[in-house]
Design a protein that fits this description.
single chain; Growth Hormone, Chain: A; transmembrane
Length: 427
């Protein structure tokens, strides 16, 4: 559910623009408001999971998420919707690392754990890929509010299942780091604000410069603070493990490319080509099916050969699909877009369980919560940056900016494949 809401709204962006009188920068905030807070609070969400137990944290996060989804569905202005999306992100940030920690604690055997993580990742990866498809169907049949209100049903089922059957991992009693958390919020909010608003207000405008300077200063302070605090929100020694660092880079690039391109393709198909929301959603169907298949296969492959090969192969397939879109051009028929998105979905789906397994295998079990939170933070930051950067590139010349964005994504994915191939070990 938390993964679904990262992409389900993309197909509805043109509709939201018309119904709520929202501009491009506000539509970027509808997407990034969720992923930004999701990223900013996942580290403390992982710490909370380790401190109070994963089950308690999961239930708390799910409750916040469902309440925020109701607020999204009732929003009448862009500001109300963006604020509710912020709250959704907070609930997701608490819920997601707790869910992975529950999986990690439930399986001691590395092989079984890899398969379980593969299924966990398959659910999340399939939801991200299926978001545009489900969004298109709901938008065409029930209206844009249903994209958020459907979470009430899903969340209620999740709460019932968790309270009845989920085991509670032991708490490790880790301390909190409010200064570090506040600094992360400043860094992510300042940088995202600068990237989104720079293309609209101008890069030399005072608000944009203030945001970017605050982000840079906050990043420097954060590193210094985390090195000396007794209970750091992000233990920097985790990055001493090459596989952990490499998987974090791969996760960032993966979502940078994926979220950014889905955001642009949704606008391109409806605003530039004139396709309906339903057709736009169905364009993403082959990609969604490919991602689901790859998630399931990726977990098994990772369990058998280790995470390196799926990470490298998946990134290359992802890049290959985007390169096909570049070569196809803006006048490509829909079937050609379908063909190009299949390797995108398959590649992205293959990478998710592999990089998740690489992170969990590189740290002790007691640090699974904060480690998984760091990986997912890197992924969500990547998604937020992708939407911000690509949205800025298309603000003046949409088609030219779209092509530039695709090329940037291809180059980033190729670089991430090299990083994964060098620093992630085979089993």
């Amino acid at each position: 559910m938390v993964s679904l809401d990262a992409t389900i709204v993309n197909v509805a962006l043109p509709t939201l623009g018309h119904r709520l009188d929202a501009g491009l920068s506000q539509l970027q905030w509808v997407v990034d408001g969720y992923t930004l807070v999701f990223a900013a609070f996942q580290l403390i969400g992982g710490t909370l999971s380790d401190r109070i137990g994963a089950r308690r944290a999961f239930v708390a996060g799910l409750t916040v998420f469902v309440a925020a989804s109701l607020a999204c569905g009732l929003a009448t202005t862009p500001a109300m919707l963006i604020a509710a999306r912020f709250a959704q992100g907070l609930g997701a940030a608490i819920q997601l690392p707790a869910s992975l920690a529950m999986v990690r604690h439930a399986y001691a055997d590395p092989g079984r754990r890899a398969r379980a993580v593969g299924l966990w990742a398959a659910a999340g990866g399939a939801a991200v890929a299926a978001g545009p498809v489900i969004g298109g169907v709901l938008l065409a049949t029930l209206g844009w509010r249903s994209l958020f209100l459907v979470n009430l049903v899903i969340g209620a089922c999740g709460l019932l299942a968790t309270t009845r059957s989920a085991a509670t991992p032991a708490s490790t009693g880790r301390g909190m780091d409010p200064v570090g958390q506040l600094t992360v919020v400043v860094v992510l909010c300042g940088s995202t604000y600068g990237l989104i608003e720079g293309g609209h207000r101008g890069w030399s405008s005072a608000p944009v410069l203030t945001g970017l300077i605050a982000a840079a200063a906050g990043a420097v302070f954060f590193v210094r603070w985390e090195r000396r605090v007794a209970d750091p929100m992000l233990p920097l020694d985790l990055f001493a493990h090459p596989a952990f660092s490499a998987a974090s880079v791969v996760g960032f690039v993966q979502n940078f490319a994926y979220y950014g391109i889905v955001f642009l393709l949704s606008l391109f198909l409806q605003e530039q080509r004139g396709d309906s929301a339903l057709v736009t959603g169905l364009v993403f169907l082959p990609m969604s099916l490919a991602a689901l298949t790859a998630n399931l296969l990726g977990g098994r492959i990772t369990a058998a050969v280790g995470p390196r090969s799926p990470i490298v192969g998946g990134q290359l397939a992802f890049a290959g699909g985007l390169l096909l879109l570049v070569l196809a051009g803006a006048d490509a028929p829909l079937w050609m877009i379908w063909v190009a998105t299949v390797p995108v979905g398959f590649g992205a789906g293959t990478v998710v369980p592999a990089m998740t397994s690489a992170v969990l295998e590189s740290v002790p079990a007691a640090r699974a919560g904060v480690a998984s939170a760091q990986l997912n933070t890197a992924r969500q930051v990547g998604g937020a940056v992708g939407v911000a950067v690509f949205g800025t590139l298309v603000a003046g010349d949409f088609l030219g900016g779209l092509r530039t964005s695709l090329v940037i994504a291809v180059l980033a994915l190729l670089a991430a494949a090299v990083v994964g191939g060098i620093f992630v070990r085979t089993r």
